[in-house]
Design a protein that fits this description.
With 272 residues, the protein is an alpha/beta fold. The protein has nine helices and six strands. A six-stranded mixed beta sheet has the order 2-1-3-6-4-5. Helix 4 crosses helix 5. It is flat, with a radius of gyration of 41 Å.
Length: 272
């Protein structure tokens, strides 16, 4: 897929060949919603806390007797019904973090990058052309490339001059390519990327690049196959004559068998 590249004056500076795995992915709204929910939920600190009726300070004494006062029944002044009382179902610090597979998170970013390209709100710049870090330079650049409204400016890495030039402009945010996320891609209308940022995005989310072997380099030798284990020698079979002798020889009596026979003979003699 080829995309148009512009310079800082807004004129066409050529084209760039990009991967379809980044800018040609069909939109999956359910997946993007899950990724956004994961991002916003994990951003919660989870330190909110309030006191229940058992934790708030106050007396445990019954304010007045149960009957014959004309007032409503009351057991404690720390009841949630009272002023300065405890909070019913008070929130406590807890962990809000969620987990989704890494492949889903990366696919959601690819879906949004492809959506920006399909909507025509993706602009690729050859160079930012901002050296002094002045806001008027960034405003002139955005006007030259016809960017109106909110915009997300993505560079390969953090550039201080670009950050200083954009931080005072409302609706403009700068971001390094490795920090691209679903929330910012959905929040801002336009996406402005430099050539280096596009290459970095392809390195991160288009899959592992193919390994290139230099012409003079030799390939690593293949591992030698494991040596086969020597077969165990079969035990020699007993000769037929030896087996016949074993069968003919009388079996030896064990001591336990001899004792049991002696006991039976003794009992037989006593009966006689």
């Amino acid at each position: 897929m080829k995309l148009e590249v512009k310079d800082s004056s807004g004129a066409q500076a050529g084209t760039i060949e990009v991967s379809d795995a980044i800018f040609g992915v069909p939109m999956n709204q359910d997946l993007v919603h899950q990724a956004l929910t994961w991002q916003r939920t994990n951003a919660r600190i989870g330190t909110q806390s309030a006191l229940t009726r058992h934790e708030v300070s106050g007396s445990r004494r019954k304010p007045w007797k149960q009957k014959h006062t004309g007032r409503a029944r009351a057991g404690r002044t720390r009841s949630p019904l009272w002023r300065h009382g405890g909070i019913t179902h008070a929130p406590k610090p807890r962990d809000h973090s969620l987990r989704i597979p890494r492949k889903m998170r990366r696919l959601a970013i690819r879906c949004l990058l492809s959506s920006k390209h399909a909507e025509g709100t993706l602009i690729i710049l050859k160079d930012m052309g901002i050296a002094d870090g002045k806001a008027k330079e960034m405003a002139a650049l955005l006007k030259a490339i016809e960017v109106g409204g909110t915009a997300l400016i993505v560079t390969r890495e953090k550039i201080e001059s670009v950050v200083r030039a954009a931080r005072n402009l409302p609706g403009i945010r700068t971001l390094p390519a490795p920090q691209l996320n679903v929330g910012d891609l959905l929040k801002y209308q336009h996406l402005v990327m430099t050539l280096d940022a596009v290459h970095r995005a392809e390195e991160l989310w288009a899959g592992a690049p193919a390994q290139v072997v230099a012409p003079g380099a030799m390939a690593a030798p293949a591992a030698a196959p494991a040596a086969a284990k020597p077969a165990r020698a079969a035990a020699p079979k007993a000769a037929p004559a030896a087996k016949a002798e074993e069968a003919a020889s009388p079996k030896k009596r064990t001591p336990s068998t001899t004792r049991s026979r002696k006991a039976r003979d003794t009992q037989a003699r006593k009966k006689e």
